[in-house]
Amino acid sequence: MHKGPACTETSRPEKPPENACNPLYGALVENLESLVIARRLRVPVDAPADVPAGATPGWGEVAARQLDAALLSVGFTCSPALLGRLADLPGEHVVDLGVRVLAAVRHLVGDHVTHNAYFIDFPANVPDTLEFWAGRLREAMLDPVAAARVRPDTVNLLTLPGYGRYQHGYADLVAAHAELIPLAADRVSVLELGGGLAEEARELYFSLAGSEAPLPAEDLAALRLLAAYCQDEPERIPVRENRAIVNEARLAAGRPLLVDTVTDVLRLACGCSGGDVTLATPARFRSFRRAERRALLRALDAVATPAKLGDVPRHREQWKRLGERLHPHEYPQFPRAVQVFEVARGERRAAGLDSRVESALAGGRTADAVALLAHSPGALLRRLDHLLRTGESAADVLAAAERAAAQASGRVLLSLREHLQNRLVAAAGRVFVNRHGRAWAAPDTRPELAEEVLPRALAFLDEEITRRLPDVGEVTVDRDALDVALPLSGKAVAPGLGMLPRGSLAPVEGELLRFFTYWRQADRHTDYDLSALMLDDSYDNATQISWTNYANDFATYSGDLTQAPDGASEFIDIRLAKATRPIVIPMVNIYAGEPFDEAAEAFFGYMSRDAAQEGLPFEPRTVRMKSDLRGAGRVALPLAFLRGDDGAWRVKWLHLYLKGRPAFNRVEGHQVTASLLVRSIVERDYLRVGYLAGLLRAKSSPDGPPVHIGLDRPAGLPEEHLVYTPATLHELIPA
Asked: Number of structural domains, the chain?
């Protein structure tokens, strides 16, 4: 079992909810089951019911073997424990479970849809770009109807007959390709035996709700599903977005709310209205029942102290809209709640901490700003770099920071540690990334910090982080996990197969690298373009592969598709040994139509295989990484492939989106921005697993439980080990 956050059990019902016979409850159970499989690669198996009359003896083992064979075709296999457990179940039960398991893992790798390619023989027989366009134009001139639309002065190449649409069916594509030759190097992910669904759901719920790092939108949606199902909850819920979702379940059940700021109440109201609990986008508040209004106003009245009213102006307009729904004037027993809406309407003044600190700094009163920030340790540490550059005594600022470190969250300490270690060397530029993954870069014009500042700051941060880490025994770490970045924020990282935090490095195996994108439009014509930007060691001398350049000496494009009512796939093949550029940056550009988060479906991934394997353009067992595209920008930069001095290729996770243009985005138009962003990410020194593992080893003791950190759980590892994989790495972030 993975280690979870500290918890208390407010209740632990052993029987299912009363609505277990409701069809909606059955759908909830299936969704939870798929969620556990996708997030943890564990198959929940409840205790078997009585064997039904007429069941064939031994059929469970046969069905389990058949399931394992089917799973191998998509790159998964059952662990021995899971196979043994399934063999003890009735065959009918194994078949039903197997259908759901197979569907979940196929969706995880992107095999739940059909991946066709524009050029039927891709990557073979892809024509030269000019040759292709000349052929399309020649066909248009031979077609009387099409020729009538072609004007000699202007030709829209994208409207030529046959362009941008599949010219063959998927069955034709299958017939044109030899079968994939399985190799030992192909990805085989092991599905472990889980406990009962209630146990697995509870463990996942505690892990997500108790996370020290903010969660992506998909995990917030999963948390809402789990909160409605699980009756227990963690003792500590540090991230306020998570707390808002837990409060939704508490409000529905009539239980006391977990709030300590006025903004907590606003987040809850947004979540209950189907809005964004991160408050990044305004919510359209629903009408609340009288009991709900009373509960929200009671919670607001309890926390609306004069010091906390300063948080209201930050979300003034949303507070005004919420006041129209809560009718606070009808509840005179909650006078402090009424004051919140008076501040929002401008009838009462309330200066927040940030405004008072900014006023002090603008007046050159750094000591006053430090004194104000002493009441908010996290805010002081986040401003430490700025405070050290204001002219105040560095020793005094560091002393205040050292006192604040004992009270700030572990995530803030780690984030500051990463920030300061990057101040030791000059950077190519500063990268700014918002919660949606939209990124921009700027030159680093900050003056250097005093020479004696950084060693002292790093020393007290390391000491405090070490103090908070758990007491453990022997610590083992897989070599490939050492370069995984610590998940200090997961907001821009969509969950999926093989996903790692931004800044992580992982080796690339195989001779051929093939990345792919798939999209399906929801309501209107949508054209996404898969492209690749290729740079030299100085991030210059760019070349590219896209719909305007089908191939070069080492890369090939599968062909451009310009609409996707039934889904469309595009691929780019890279022959790594022949690559003349050591930096390859995949890009997905929105040329026209729906944004990533409005399309019916959109995802990106990459495969690796050997040249002799043949196979279809998409082979699920060769998929190494796949995740949804959902950022707010019009250009996606999921990751970059880098060739090191040793000649080995590695992949670095970016999780970035560029704003782009409203339409007609092409790789040629984003070369400068993309290269600067990628260089800034590549050259940044991220805090990695190796750092935290070193601190754990420094305080290990023979009496503590052994710890293993890896990309997956090794076979045969004793149960007493605490195992951390990318799916649970956030549990290592100290409180």
From this structure: 4
- DSSP count for the chain of H helices, then E strands: 23, 22
Of 48, 125, 123, 128, nearest to 92 (Cα)? 48
Domain span at residue 390? 353-468
| Residue range 569-579, pLDDT digits in tens | 999 999 999 99
Q: Which residues pair with 66 in a beta bridge?
A: none
pLDDT of residue 575: 96
* Same domain membership, residue 500 and residue 425: no
pLDDT digits (tens, 9 = 90+) for 313-336: 999 999 999 999 999 999 999 999
Mean pLDDT for 542-549 is: 94
* Residue 48 preceded by cis peptide, ω within 30: no
Q: What distance in Å separates the CA atoms of residue 437 and residue 282, rounded to the nearest whole number?
A: 19
Residues paired with 635 in a beta bridge: 589, 658
CB neighbour class for 52 (10 Å; exposed up to 12, middle 13-18, buried from 19): exposed
Kindly state the average pLDDT of the residues 472-486: 94
How far is Cα 181 from Cα 171, in angstroms, rounded to an integer? 19
723 strand-pairing partners: 708
Other CB atoms within a 10 A radius of the CB of residue 385 amount to 16
C-alpha to C-alpha distance for 420 and 93, rounded to whole angstroms: 55
Q: What is the DSSP letter of 664?
A: -
pLDDT in tens, 702-718: 888 999 999 998 888 88
Instruction: Look up residue 288 and give its two tokens.
Output: 């609340």
Give the chain's mean pLDDT.
Answer: 89
Q: Is residue 447 part of a domain?
A: yes
How far is CA 4 from its chain centroid? Answer: 20
H or E element in which residue 683 lies: helix 671-683
In one-letter notation, the amino acid at residue 314 is R
- Gap between the Cα atoms of 440 and 432, Å rounded: 5
For 119-156, letters b (16+ CB in 10 Å) and e give bbebbeebeeeeebbeebbeebeeeeebeeeeeeeeee
Cβ neighbours of 270 (radius 10 Å):
23
Q: Which amino acid is at 316?
A: R
Closest CA to 601 of 528, 525, 522: 522
Q: Is residue 16 part of a domain?
A: no
* Least confident among 23-27, 281-285, 478-482: 23-27
Alpha carbons 666 and 676: distance in angstroms, whole number: 17
Residues 571 and 679 in one domain: yes
The model's confidence at residue 162, banded by pLDDT at 50, 70 and 90, is: confident
Q: Are 692 and 679 in the same domain?
A: no
What does the alpha-carbon distance between residue 558 and residue 121 come to, in Å, rounded to a whole number? 9
